[in-house]
Amino acid sequence: MEENYKKTVFFGPFVGEFGWELLFWHGWVKRLCRTRYKDCYKIACSFPGRYPFYPEVDAFWPLPDEFLKFPISSRNYITDYWNKGKPEATVPANLPDVWPRLKRVIADFQKKLPKDTEFIHPWTYRYDKEDKRHYGVDKKYTPYAPPYSKQILVKIQPTQKGRETLKKIVSPEEKLIVIFPRKRNFRRPDKNWKKESYQLLINRIQKKLPGYKIAILGEPGGAFFEEGVPKNCLDLINVNPYQRMDIHLAAVSQAKLAVGGQSGGVSFAMAGGAKTITWGNAVFERVIAKENYLNSPLIFLPLSDPSIDLIFKYINWFIGINSMPLDNLLRISKIIFYRIFNPRYPHLFRLRLKQIFKI
Question: Can you give the pTM of this predicted structure?
Fold first, then answer.
C-alpha cells in the first residue's frame, strides 16, 4: 500500500427531508470529518447543490439525474414508499419504491471507489460505540438521530461563488425579505399555508414597505410559485439546481428578515442567522425553538392560519418600524432580549416577557 494512501469514507447518499439533513445529519458528518475521519479522503452525497452543508469533505457527489427523474416524498432519513410500498405518505400516492433504485445508484458509486471504501448511510440502523447510541432507521421505520451534543452545528455560510451569483441577480445593497412558501403534496400538506395568503402578504409588504425587495426561496415541487413568482419578486426557486442552496444562503445572509410557515426552509434561514417569523400548530412551539440552534432572533406564532394583519404587524416590529406588539399570541426566542434590548441584563427581560405574555 502506498505510503500516502488515504482511506475513503462516503457519507450518504442523503435522500431524506431537507430539515433532517440540516438538523440531524450534516452536523454529525462535520463532527466525524473533524475527528474520526480527519485523515481520510471524504465524500458526501446528497441532492444537487447541497455542497454548502459539507465544507469539510474533499468531494461532493450529487445524486444522479436518472435517480431524481421520479418524484420523491422525503421522510426523515428515508422516504415514503421506501420499500414494498412502505411507509405510506400522509396523503396516499402512487409513487415507485425508492430503495431498489437507490441500491443501483450506490452500486454505480462503488464501481468508481476503492474497494475498502467505508460507506456511512443515514438510514442504516447501527450502534455507535463511541456515542453509545443507536442511529439510523429501524425495521418499523422509526428514525434515531444524533442529538445536537453529538454534532457540530454552526452558522451555514454561502461560498464566494454563491455570493457572486446572487450579485448578478440582485444588488448587494438591496434590502431583502426572503419568503419560504412551503408546499407539500404528500408529506404533511396540513403544514402548508394557502398560496393565496402568501400572495396577499407579498402584496402588503410591497405596498407598505417599498424599500424592501422580496425574494421567493424554495425548490421546484416543494414551494408555491415554482411556475412563476409574483410581480416584482426575485425568483430564486428556478435557478441552477447545482447552485440553488448556495444562492439561497447568500440571499439569507443579505436578508433583513425571513418569513414563512414552519418548514425546513425556515429552519435553514435560522441556521443562516436570519431574523425569522414563522407560524404553525401550537404543539410545534418547542420543536421550532429547539431547531433554532443558533438562537437567531425568532418569532413563532402558534397558529396554523394567522391573519395577514398579524404577520405584518410583527414584520414591522422586527425590521424596526413599530414598537413591539403586545399580543398574547406572541412566542419569541429569548435571544431577542439578549441582542436587541440589553444583553447585560437578560433576566430582567425574561421576567418582563413573563409579565406581559403570562408564560
Answer: 0.85
